[in-house]
Design goal:
The complex is a heterodimer of chains A (126) and B (615).
Chain A lengths: L2 H15 L16 H10 L2 H5 L18 H10 E2 L8 E2 L8 H13 L15
Helix pairs in contact in A: 1-4, 2-5, 4-5
Chain B lengths: L7 H7 L14 H4 L28 H11 L4 E4 L6 H10 L6 E4 L3 H15 L4 E5 L2 H15 L5 E6 L9 H5 L15 E3 L4 H15 L7 E6 L26 H13 L3 E5 L6 H14 L2 E4 L22 E5 L5 H9 L3 E6 L20 E4 L2 H15 L2 H30 L9 H12 L4 E3 L6 H5 L20 H13 L4 E7 H6 L3 H7 L5 E5 L5 H13 L20 H7 L3 E6 L5 H13 L4 E5 L5
Helix pairs in contact in B: 3-4, 3-8, 5-6, 5-16, 9-12, 10-12, 14-21
The chains are: A mainly alpha (126), B alpha/beta (615).
Chain lengths: 126, 615
């Protein structure tokens, strides 16, 4: 299996299992631009499935920090097979979303603070 | 038979000036019909030229029809008014005193039928819905389809002018049909076009009986407008209604099912519309506990309490799957075969089906198919399971139940963690909306009457049958708002607190139902899930464009509901419903809900416009 294919496979397994993708952990800060990333995230419709803050919806949860940048790029490019909007996502080609824009989106998602712990949310105790 | 009958033209010409004695008064209702005619003020009486002063009291044909509806315990008539059933409508008001049935004013026939759907899912019985046979039935068709797919008893009366010589002008002609039920025949269990009052009586009672025999479903009776205007022969009686006992499963097949379930190491129960009534929910619990088997509730009704320890399980890992009124089980059965597991199906769907619409789903290759109503079969199945269960099996069951209880607790904790993501987001997450709502209604006798947002089913504590009524059976857009109002009306007399999480696109189909809620003082807390789009289709467009490597920038063209944003609070106010919003900041939700709860508890509807995340 070549490297991109392996990368995609690991990403899909991680997302399917709801795991943080620590295998792709990135030690350096995201190189993209947060403001541009937010604009691109909304313009390219990522929010329609993943929520405006990447918290998930019809699509997988993207925050906080589930994927490192290379895995995130692989996910965007390869998509996920599935016949319905809830079960799959066609890949975004570079002609519609450049690598730089994906980096910006990654930076935006990385900038979103984690939610408060469940134990600190009284409404989720009952 | 010879019935007194006056052609419409003569009736119209006679008018109030005829001044004959009336058999009923405007407020007197049925009781007044027995009063001597001479004691009734002529000026207040409706004109009926075929009755003379001093004649013995006789009912109008439509009075008799209303008496039939009374005998069927019809609590309401939902209708957008129309001349073709004006006789019935007038009789309800002046003969029956607008009680049992009470007229409920609807602003669209789709609203009338969807309200009847919501009412029936709470109350377990139909109301009367009157439709103009042509244009009204055309309007109503999608809502009839929802009821058909959802196995809901809906009772339709279609006013028509059958006799071509009595159609007085163009409008009569375009509003008449040779076979008015043709348009809905593929989505009703039965219909008839009676040619006499006696025929109408039998068909009206038969229709009720058919609608209320599982599988439940919509029925329709055509009533000729002139038939409503005649007088009732003295000897005409109302046929007796006896609703059949629902069909229960064959005893040997039930015993076989019990043996398979007791012998299984990991049986799983899959239920979609198994709990037809509150008793069905209790039976579901009894069966699951007898087997200590997990229940996968597909929730077209509330089939199982959400926080019960046995709520859960995985049909994909079962060695025996028991599918109860489960709808599409073709995939479950196919996967079961591949791992040498068995599938048992109990459904009344095997007893009645039509061909055109494909709601019968893909053919499922099951191992034991019991053509019967699941709820009616459960008592025998539970007893058979108990008989088959030995001490050894009981110990196995207990260990299984303990594992499922652990999994159930973990699922709740997982749901709470997932709900926390996006907790403080603006627009507001649907999880946050759900939990803000739960915090303020959980101590009421509540009933959630919409099924679009999934969070309540994961996080709230559902224990009673009326607390959830599922989704639109045919998934038609425009069901939720009117079905919620109909369900709220049914809940009203029980003193329940009704709440709906209302999709924006759905409300825009028939917003007039808000006026109905205000006009009839139907208490309902409607909380908008306003994502400002036909969002499902937005996602489909994105998918389609991406598969073709084309731009998705047009994703809101033809799919969005912004520009201008719809002010649902103002819309509600204009229709007489107190409201608040739009609210897009989580901290503003609680005060609005508090106000809404106050208003609803005083017996009025209230709408909160919440701008939410897409999902």
């Amino acid at each position: 299996m070549n490297e991109p294919a392996l990368c995609r496979l690991l990403v899909l397994v991680a997302l399917a299992l709801g795991m943080p993708c620590t295998a792709f952990a990135q030690s350096t800060p995201p190189k993209g631009d947060v403001a541009k990333g937010k604009a691109a995230y909304l313009k390219t419709g990522c929010h329609t499935c993943h929520g405006t803050v990447g918290h998930g919806g019809a699509g997988a949860r993207l925050t906080p920090g589930r994927l490192a940048a290379p895995a995130f790029l692989a996910y965007v490019r390869s998509g996920r097979k599935g016949w319905s909007v809830a079960g799959g996502m066609p890949g975004y080609p570079a002609s519609l979303l450049s690598d730089a824009a994906v980096d910006d989106i990654f930076a935006y998602l990385a900038s979103i603070p984690p939610p408060p712990p469940v134990s600190n949310i009284p409404l989720l105790k009952d | 038979m010879s019935e007194p009958k006056l052609p419409r033209r003569e009736f119209m010409k006679s008018g109030a000036a005829t001044g004959v004695a009336a058999l009923v008064t405007a407020q007197g209702g049925a009781a007044a019909a027995q009063a001597p005619a001479a004691q009734t003020p002529a000026a207040a009486a409706p004109a009926t030229p075929s009755v003379q002063v001093g004649d013995p009291p006789r009912r109008h044909a439509s009075d008799y029809m209303v008496d039939i509806f009374k005998s069927l315990d019809m609590e309401y008539m939902f209708a957008m008014c129309a001349s073709s059933f004006i006789g019935i409508h007038e009789s309800i008001i002046n003969y029956a005193g607008n009680k049992n049935p009470e007229g409920i004013t609807c602003t669209h026939e789709e609203i009338s039928v969807a309200m009847a759907n919501g009412y029936a899912k709470i109350e377990g019985k139909p109301v009367l819905v009157c439709l103009h046979a042509t244009v009204g039935t055309q309007h109503a068709a999608m809502a009839v389809y929802d009821a058909w797919c959802d196995r809901v008893p809906v009772y339709l009366v279609l006013g028509n002018t059958q006799d071509a010589t009595q159609r007085n002008g163009e409008v009569y002609w375009v509003h008449s049909a040779q076979d008015p039920c043709a348009i809905i025949r593929d989505m009703t269990k039965w219909d008839d076009n009676p040619v006499s009052l006696a025929h109408f009586a039998e068909s009206a009672v038969r229709a009720y009986k058919i609608a209320m025999t599982p599988p439940y479903g919509p029925v329709a009776i055509v009533v000729d407008d002139h038939m409503q205007e005649g007088l009732v022969p003295a000897d005409l009686r109302i046929p007796k209604l006896t609703v059949p006992t629902p069909p229960a499963g064959d005893s040997s097949a039930v015993a076989q099912a019990a043996r398979m379930l007791v012998a299984a190491e990991n049986p799983v129960i899959v239920a979609t519309r198994a709990a037809r009534t509150p008793a069905g929910l209790k039976l579901m619990v009894e069966l699951a506990e007898a087997l200590q088997a997990g229940v996968v509730d597909r929730r077209r009704r509330l089939n199982f309490p959400t926080r019960h320890a046995l709520n859960g399980g995985d049909a994909g890992e079962a060695d025996v799957v028991l599918a109860l009124e489960a709808g599409d089980i073709s995939g479950i059965a196919r996967q079961a075969r591949q791992r040498n597991a068995k599938t048992i199906s109990i459904t009344a769907g095997d007893l009645f089906q039509r061909s055109n619409y494909q709601d019968f789903m893909r053919y499922a290759e099951v191992d034991l198919s019991i053509a019967a109503d699941a709820e009616a079969t459960l008592p025998a199945l539970i007893e058979a399971v108990k008989r088959e269960t030995t001490g050894d099996r009981r110990r196995v069951f207990e260990a299984r139940g303990a594992r499922l209880a652990t999994a159930n607790r973990q699922a709740l904790e997982r749901a709470r963690t997932e709900a926390s993501y996006g907790w403080d987001a603006s627009p507001i997450s649907t999880a946050r909306l759900s939990m803000e709502l739960w915090a303020q209604i959980k101590n009421e006798d509540w009933s959630l009457v919409t099924g679009w947002v999934n969070w309540p089913l994961r996080l709230w504590d559902f224990t009673r049958h009326y607390q959830y009524i599922g989704r639109a059976g045919g998934e038609g857009v425009g069901y939720y708002a009117p079905a919620s109002v109909g369900a709220a009306l049914a809940n009203k007399k029980h003193g329940r607190f009704t709440v709906a999480i209302q999709p924006d696109g759905d409300l825009m189909v028939a917003p007039g139902v808000l006026w109905t809620a205000a006009h009839h003082q139907i208490p309902l807390l409607m909380v908008m899930q306003n994502n400002r789009a036909y969002h499902q289709e937005v996602m489909w467009f994105e998918r389609q464009a991406l598969l073709r490597n084309r731009s998705i920038e047009g994703m809101y063209t033809g799919f969005g509901l912004g520009g201008p944003n719809i002010d649902f609070a103002a819309l509600a106010k204009s229709l007489g419903v107190e409201s608040s919003g739009p609210i897009s900041t989580p901290a503003d939700l609680a005060p609005a809900i508090r106000r809404g709860v106050e208003v609803v508890k005083k017996g009025q509807p209230y709408l909160i416009d919440v701008v939410t995340q897409p999902r």
